[in-house]
Amino acid sequence: MDNPLTGETTRTVELKRASTITTTPVRYLWRGRLAEGKQSILDGDGGVGKSTLVATMIAAITTGGELPGGPRLHRPRNVLYLSFEDDWDDTIVYRLEAAGADLSRVWLVHAVHETTVVAYRDGAPVLQTVPRQIELPVDMDDLEQIVVAQEIDFLVIDPLEAIIGDKVETVSNQGMRRVLVRLHDLQSRTGLCVLSLRNLNKMQSQKAIYRGGGAGSILWTARFGMFLGRHPDESDQFVLTSTKVNTGPMPPAEAFYLEPVETGVTRVVWTGMVGYSADQVADNKQEEDPDTSLAVACKWLNTRLVFGPLPVKEIEAMVAAEVERTEGGRKKGPPISWRTVRRAKDRLGVQHRRVGYGTGGFVAWFLPSYLANDTYLAKLEEDLDKLKTRMDTPENDQESILVQTEISIAREGKVQA
User: Fold this and answer.
1) CA–CA separation, 337 vs 5, rounded Å?
2) Which tens digit of pLDDT belongs to each residue from 145-194?
3) Element (H, E) at 242
4) Which end of the chain is more exposed for a tag (fewer CB within 10 A), N or C?
5) Angle 133-139-141 (CA atoms, 0-180°, nearest 5)?
6) Environment class of 331 (CB within 10 Å of its CB; exposed 0-12, middle 13-18, buried 19+)
């Protein structure tokens, strides 16, 4: 009998009766949005609070808490947070703290160290180690090792396109499906819940379900799709809606606003269920009226920061004074609120950074045009020298602090908000 040809492939098809399959209930981390062993997608434009909302999810998951609509999580879980846009030291950790997360249960991949033989010297290999960010599908096996070793239950990828290696086109359905199917296999083995964030594409006429960037197969392989956008009626609020739920009915839309905290970041404050669909939120095109509260707040904030940075607490105090004057009838025009000023900060591109540490530290806001200006810096140093000679009153002391803030910002960097 002839030997079979090398490389010859045979195949068999395995069948199962549906009656032999053991059913298991869906185990939700957030009903209709996040579940064990399932992939979820969160779509939204920049500036609508996607990453801040993620911090709220992580807080509930790491502390055994509850998100709107439940269920209550009866045990804290570990999280792997792969963020490729924000910095951990001045943004992400502050967001997680503001949301109430257990930081000891949150992990990040600091770097993947790749070692290559670049030459041989006297018969011995010469090695070069280069750090890089984690990529899929190249590092899928390493990712599984991390998930198993650290008992990770929730993986966040922010944004999804940043983790995909150069050899895969994020707009290719075939390429992305291969990556996501491998990720799904990992989830099936470990029960891992995965949430991937996407920015929106430019096709504003499309339905919300098609607005996420990248290939269509990204949402096809997900069990849950979410869309986050601005509230159609409340200009300082946002609405989280659903575009896809494969395990049951669509959860109701939830509204929230972003409340600022002393560290310069914001946290989610839920305001309740609303009756908007994802398409209604995606089609929300709010045109700015020059007499609206946001336009007034933008002008107000720019006027106060044009001469240099100010501590957040001082800006808050000025806002409170404006509110008092408006409510007392001593000032006409649309009222401003702290939440509206926060939106004005984003609209103007106002930057923030922490100045100093401990009880003497504070967060300052400043216009980006005041960064790294040598002439301006020299003038500030002159002003500070003058202030040091007359520090007898609290007012002068406060003025000195503000000038030092400006010098610190100009010296130490172009810091992104």
Assistant:
1) 78
2) 999 999 999 999 999 988 888 777 766 778 888 888 899 999 999 999 99
3) strand 238-245
4) N
5) 145
6) middle
